[in-house]
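INFO  loader      accepted 1 record
INFO  loader      residues=652
INFO  predictor   begin
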Amino acid sequence: MPNQSTYNNYLLGSLMLLMMIIASCARMGSPDGGPYDETPPVVVRTNPAIGAINNKERRIVLEFDEFIKLQNASEKVIISPPQVEVPEIKTSGKRVIVELLDTLKPNTTYSIDFGDAITDNNEGNPMGQFAFTFSTGTSIDSMEVAGTILDASNLEPIKGMQVGLYADLSDTAFTTKPLERISRTDASGRFTIKGVAPGTYRIYGLMDSDQDYRFSQKSEMVAFMDSLVIPYSEPAIRQDTFWIDSLTIDTIIDVPYTKYLPDDLVLKAFKEETSTQYMLKNERLTPNKFSVYFAAKADTLPTLKGLNFDAADAFIIEKSQHNDTIHYWLKDSALIRLDTLIMALDYLYTDTLGQLAPQTDTLYLAPKKTLAMYQKERDKEMEEFQKDLKKRRRRLKEGEVLTDTLPPIKFLKPKVGNIKDVYATLTLDFDEPLARIDTQAIHLRLKVDTLWKDIPYRFELVDGKIRQYRIRAEWRPEQEYELSIDSMAFTGIYGLHSDKMKQTMKMRSLDDYGTLAFDLTGGGAKALSPNAYVELLNSDDKPVRREPLVKGHSEFFFLNPGKYYARIIDDTNGNDKWDTGIYADHLQPEQVYYYPQMLEVRALWDMRQDWDITALPIEKQKPLEITKQKPEEKKERRSKNAEREERKRKNK
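INFO  predictor   done
INFO  writer      dumping tokens
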């Protein structure tokens, strides 16, 4: 019989052998569970049948060969004709169940377009573009109409916008009836309306905020085409590729199919300018000014009658370009001290019939911060000032050398621009209207050698502004200028005056700039109005410079080096801005064209670019780099089985 020591050695050796076997097994690897499922779900049966005719069932059941998921059904699933009551769409294991709650229309083709919403439960393999159709009549309508919707102002693709057809060609159909056949745009602005019967249609786009499938609110974005749409089809050939694996092509074959047209419609969407007029709000933030805001532009200013004060010549009025924002600066100190201003405001508002009608509102305007509060703060400041002054006098008597300064006096401080480009305009902005300007106290000087020489300039009020001025001068490259303003040059309506100030500016060298010119070519240039202009844009699609088109040419001088983009605004009414459309007047928005590439301007370079605005379809003109609504990436799905085989090969 072995002793205890021999037994212990035997036990230790057995344990070590067992651990070596376990480690060896771990290095051999574990089973991989077989190949991945890379096939999408397949429909095995439906009720009713796909393409059923004379169908009366509102409950549709689709059964698949595996467990499935339904992703973003509210976004991706489109039912046509549109349903007033939202259908119930749900999954149950291997089934998708759709409950239509609206009464079925007679002799109508119904399509339930799932897009790529259906995937298998495990690997997420999408089924692809799948649509279920049936008819309540004796035949299935199979025509399709496709195209793109763009934002008319900047050619951005619009995602999630409804697009629909009317067989009713009257102008009032879009505002009184729901769309008859619908689709919805994807991330590229693309749409396909399916289940269309042969015939003649009008087509519309609608960002339907109230889900009534018609243009019922002016705030809704819309699009329409002036021409009619006639669907048709023709035979065509496409090429299908068969793969041996994820990298090797087996065969490419020609496959006949039916092509549905038109498939290149372009609708330009816009939102009409707000025409409903009403007062948004009124406020008196400070004792010396009150403001009134309106919802839409107006041709005239409101009239105002003081009920506890005399409003005659009581204000300086500052208004926006379209009279929708109006500031009233009080001139009389007695009115400024008045705690509450009571007045009757007469203006035009839009009544229930959509007509402008007179309206009178009584306003009670009290400042959020009263004059007494301001005076209390000012008194406190003056008290502190007097205390500091007494301390300074005592310290001076005692022979102390003072290095600190008194608290600053409150001045009227203009905000002065600091320019360095020869094409720029020097501006001065004030916090309140001015009562007096002494132009003799404004000096503009040019540095000649080491001396400053006075040069001529023009000082003028900026059009449409009452608190902004500009200084115009002939700026020369590489020259240094000094703007010097004496004290008391400007006095505000509340008695504050400006302090003396000085500012130097050095203009850049011409060698720092480049030049960019456009020459329009092709027949499209002749269709532009005489008021068309070119905008240079930055990488955020924002305009940085603008020049007119003169006989098909536009030139930009003194450009800072950098990357630019460009677009043309066809300003047909000559009001120097892009204008939206008006559906009731069949007025399309003003046309916009984009130069399709980025332009890099370099110093000392003169660039001339030919530009044919019809060379590319309008939906392909805007460069992708400045397109904010990017198309969804179509990822190439590499075979997971091929990836696993590649990993095995590398690990050998």
